[in-house]
Specification:
The complex is a heterodimer of chains A (121) and B (758). Chain A is of the alpha/beta class and 121 residues long. Chain A is 36% helix and 23% strand. In chain A, strands 2-1-3-6-7 form a 5-stranded parallel β-sheet, with helices on both faces. In chain A, a hairpin with a 2-residue loop joins β4 (63-64) and β5 (67-68). In chain B, strands 3-2-1-6-5-4 form a 6-stranded antiparallel β-sheet, sandwiched between helices. Chain B has a 5-stranded antiparallel β-sheet with strand order 8-7-11-10-9, with helices on both faces. The chains are: A alpha/beta (121), B alpha+beta (758). The A-B interface holds A 16-23, 26-27, 38, 40, 63, 65-66, 88-90, 105-110 and B 554, 557-558, 561-562, 564-570, 572-573, 576, 644, 648, 651, 717, 720-721, 724-725, 755, 757-758. Chain A: Residues 10-121 form the Response regulatory domain. Chain A: It comes from Paracoccus aerius.
């Protein structure tokens, strides 16, 4: 189950649902990753990116309570940090600039996140 | 004296023979009598036609105003009446001593003192009147005098009789003469036994053109046409008249100038005292013009008859009582009866009972006013059908101008009325439909601007739903620009386009001024009059509802996904802390049940409702089977939780309750649980905070290690998940007495302010 390719990577988790964030965190830690966060709000996410970048990857929940996570995604792109979106909504109005970003619809198998992160550049 | 009287009688006889004038003779008689009696006064009284009065017909010694004017009443007190009735002379020797009779006033005034009345009878006994001798002195009339007067009166009677007869004859002759002279249309002439003309009257001269001189002596045959003469018609007529007493003569005759004259006449034989035929009286009327007029009339009547028969309206002639005299085929058709049936009945009998009165009045009015009268009324046909017809009655008059019959022109109204009624009904049905239906209906007239572009429109007609859907004030007669105070070129073009193309369109349009969306069906109603009809429904609510539904469905998908995500996360979390599969199964199932309970609470809510904390805590403790006697709940009810927080909070409370049931206050006999809460809005400006205090007491702590991992997970949710997800402030401590946990979290401030999010 462990994927050696992810060992030692620093991964940011942005997810406002605690149980999901906690589960992701646990799985990533199991794989030898260092988890940044998880954080459940845009402000925390932006603060963490500023203080920790560069790092190896991020899992970004698009809907963070009343805020959208796009500013955080922009910042990640600005740092050249690979990331993927998770979302509970159908194809929501995701801006074109994120057209190439992988989206995982909830509910998803956490294993897919791991796979996706493994393939991320 | 006698001689003198006799002479007088003789003189009178001479006079009477010489004169034909009754008044002259009577006056002369009075003069001679008064002379013979030596009274100077005498008069003749004539019984008037009514037999009640005597007129002073002639008189001598009497004033002009008496003679010919004064009348004496023939009552029982008059000596005159008495004399006439007794048919003998009556004498009053002295009227001052007279007690039998009343003497007329004018005679007393004239100084009459004595009088003799002698009745005058005509041959045959009829009374003519009286000869009355008036004396100015009392006088005892001698028997001789009386005899003289009687003789005189009887001569007078004969003379009067002759003169009266002569007078009557003269009057008759005058009338006859006058008639013949006037009746110039009548040719009257007499022929002798050989049918030669002997008498030729003016009418004959005028009709045939021959003068009397020319005609007399000619044979009657000259008046016949050559054809009739050749056929012996002239002779046959005379023979027939002689043998039967009468022969008609109705044929063309010849005038002197050779032209024809149509005579309607006859021939009668004239006979002498012994009954032998002495000649023939021929009388004929010139009816040439009348005949021509008759021919014309007949032709005209034939034409009229043809028109009458074939007219496309009902025609009938009625007598003044309403009986059918004639009826044409159309009337028979209208009234549903044969001609024979109609001619045997009256208008009244074929009229609907309710209309009889009006019908009879119309009939009477037409006769009385000489004005055509029209009436719409019902008839009943022979088969019982009821029909409506309109009749116009015109009175027809005879030659004297008296109403003789009525012409009735009758038009079948049933078809027209039924068509009208059908139209009215249909119109009413559609009107009802349009008024009752929920679709708005309007008739509009598209209007062009000065450049010929469709720019505005005017409302011509709208239904009730139109007003409801548009919330407009009464729009009929107004343009949309006037109504909305701004043009609506889009709709104007829409309507204009339909008018131009004649093609209907269906379209969904939003009117920004009204903030409403309409589904329109526009079709051309009356192109020549620029009328377009629009049927539309306000689908604003439907659209909004559809939008809402779309959002709700999206939200449902979202929630379901989140729920599944949570379930997956829960299973992951549970699995990580489970010792074996059974351990996992029991705890995972319990957590899923808690999750299902909170979903149940949330799903019952509408948009604006919120789960309240008391509801949530009671629901969870009940589900966990907590003994109510050991539980104290204390806090305000109705504290509204944010929907986004309910699930997480519920899961945290579930972990607390689970632990309490298994190891704590709800699982041990002496244990107690007190949950108290309060709302505190003071600490934070705009968001109220709920403070929850969970305190377990009276329990014995279990052996270390047995429950550490379980407690660890409940504690993790309290200490990490609530702050992470709900921005809650929490404390969790394990005292000697049991668990003490506090949770403070922001709650919903007011209904509707809060919104769900993922």
């Amino acid at each position: 189950m462990a994927d050696p390719s992810l060992r030692g990577l620093r991964i940011l988790v942005i997810e406002d649902e605690y149980l999901l964030a906690n589960a992701l965190e646990g799985r990533l830690q199991d794989l030898g990753c260092e988890v940044l966060g998880p954080v459940g709000s845009l402000d925390e996410a932006l603060a963490l990116i500023r203080s920790e970048a560069p790092f190896d990857g991020a899992v970004v929940d698009i809907n963070l309570g009343r805020a959208m996570a796009y500013p955080a995604a922009d910042m990640l792109m600005g740092h050249g940090i690979p990331f993927l979106f998770t979302t509970g909504y159908d194809d929501s109005m995701i801006p074109d600039r994120f057209g190439s970003i992988l989206r995982l619809k909830k509910p998803f198998d956490i294993g897919r996140i791991v796979q996706a992160l493994g393939r991320a550049p | 004296m006698l001689l003198r009287q006799q002479k007088i009688l003789a003189d009178f006889g001479d006079f009477a023979l010489q004169s034909d004038d009754l008044d002259d003779i009577l006056t002369e008689a009075c003069r001679l009598v008064s002379e013979a009696m030596g009274t100077g006064r005498a008069k003749v009284l004539e019984i008037e036609e009514d037999g009640r009065k005597l007129l002073v017909r002639a008189g001598v010694g009497w004033a002009q105003d008496i003679v010919g004017r004064t009348r004496i009443s023939m009552n029982k007190h008059s000596s005159e009446s008495f004399s006439i009735n007794q048919r003998k002379p009556v004498i009053s020797t002295d009227i001052s001593r007279e007690d039998r009779f009343e003497v007329p006033g004018f005679m007393r005034e004239a100084g009459v003192r004595a009088l003799a009345n002698v009745p005058i009878f005509l041959p045959g006994g009829r009374a003519f009147g009286l000869l009355q001798v008036d004396a100015s002195e009392p006088r005892d009339f001698a028997q001789d005098d009386i005899q003289f007067l009687r003789t005189y009166a009887s001569i007078l009677g004969s003379v009067v009789d002759r003169l009266l007869k002569l007078s009557a004859l003269r009057a008759s002759e005058e009338r006859f003469r006058f008639t013949v002279a006037q009746a110039l249309d009548y040719a009257i002439f007499i022929t002798d036994n050989d049918d030669r003309i002997t008498d030729w009257l003016p009418g004959a001269a005028r009709v045939f053109g021959w003068t009397e001189e020319e005609a007399v002596g000619q044979p009657g045959a000259i008046l016949f046409t050559p054809e009739d003469r050749k056929a012996g018609v002239d002779v046959q007529e005379v023979v027939q008249a002689r043998e039967t007493g009468f022969a008609p003569d109705v044929r063309w005759h010849l005038r002197k100038d050779g032209s024809g004259v149509f005579i309607d006449g006859s021939v009668r034989p004239l006979r002498d005292g012994r009954g032998l035929v002495t000649g023939y009286l021929k009388i004929g009327q010139d009816v040439t013009q009348k005949r021509e007029a008759n021919i014309l009339l007949e032709e005209s009547e034939e034409r009229l008859e043809a028109i009458f028969a074939s007219a496309p309206v009902g025609l009938s002639e009625l007598d003044l009582g309403g009986r059918f005299l004639r009826a044409n085929s159309e009337l028979c058709r209208i009234l549903g009866r044969s001609r024979d049936e109609l001619l045997a009945t009256t208008v009244r009998q074929v009229t609907h009972p309710d209309d009889v009165r009006a019908s009879q009045e119309a009939l009477a009015q037409a006769i009385a006013n000489d004005q055509p009268v029209s009436i719409d009324k019902r008839y009943h046909r022979a088969n019982g059908e009821e029909i409506w017809a309109s009749s116009t009655l015109t009175v027809l008059r005879d030659r004297d101008g008296r109403p003789s019959s009525l012409l009735a022109v009758t038009a079948d109204l049933t078809a027209r009325r039924e068509a009208e009624r059908a139209l009215r009904d249909s119109e009413q049905r559609y009107r009802n439909l349009f008024e009752l239906m929920d679709e708005a209906y309007a008739v509009v007239e598209p209007l062009k601007d000065q450049h010929g572009a469709w720019s505005d429109f005017r409302y011509i007609e709208v239904n009730a739903a139109f007003l409801k859907h548009t919330s407009m004030p009464w729009p009929v007669g107004k343009t949309i620009t006037e109504l909305l105070e701004t043009p609506n070129p889009r709709w104007a073009q829409l309507y204009g386009q339909v008018l131009d193309s004649g093609q209907p369109i269906w379209v969904e349009e939003t009117e920004p001024r009204l903030g409403r969306t309409f589904n329109l069906n526009v079709f051309s109603l009356d192109r020549p009059r620029n009328r377009v009809a629009v049927l539309f429904t306000d689908i604003t609510e439907r659209r909004e509802s559809e939008e809402r539904q779309k959002v709700l469905i999206g939200e449902l998908h979202h929630r379901t996904r989140n729920l599944m995500t949570v379930v997956l996360a829960l299973s992951d979390m549970t699995a990580r802390s489970s010792t074996d599969l059974d351990h996992f199964r029991v705890r995972f199932q319990s957590r899923l049940e808690a999750l299902a309970r909170v979903q149940g609470l949330l799903s019952r809510l509408s948009d604006l409702d919120r789960v309240t904390f008391d509801e949530l805590i009671q629901n969870e403790l009940e589900a966990m089977g907590g003994d109510p006697d050991r539980i104290t709940l204390d806090g305000p009810s109705g504290i509204r939780l944010r929907s986004s927080t309910v699930q997480t909070l519920a899961m945290a409370l579930h972990e607390l309750a689970t632990n309490a049931v298994k190891y704590g206050a709800l699982g041990q006999t002496g244990g107690r649980l007190a949950v108290t809460w309060s709302l505190d809005a003071d600490d934070h400006a705009d968001t109220p905070w709920l403070h929850i205090d969970w305190r377990e007491t009276g329990i014995t702590l279990p052996a270390e290690g047995a429950s550490s991992c379980v407690k660890g997970q409940g504690r993790e949710l309290i200490e990490r998940a609530l702050p992470y997800q709900l921005k809650a402030r929490t404390t969790y401590s394990l005292t000697d007495d049991g668990v003490h946990c506090t949770i403070a979290l922001p709650v919903s401030a007011s209904p509707g302010k809060d919104q769900q999010h993922g």
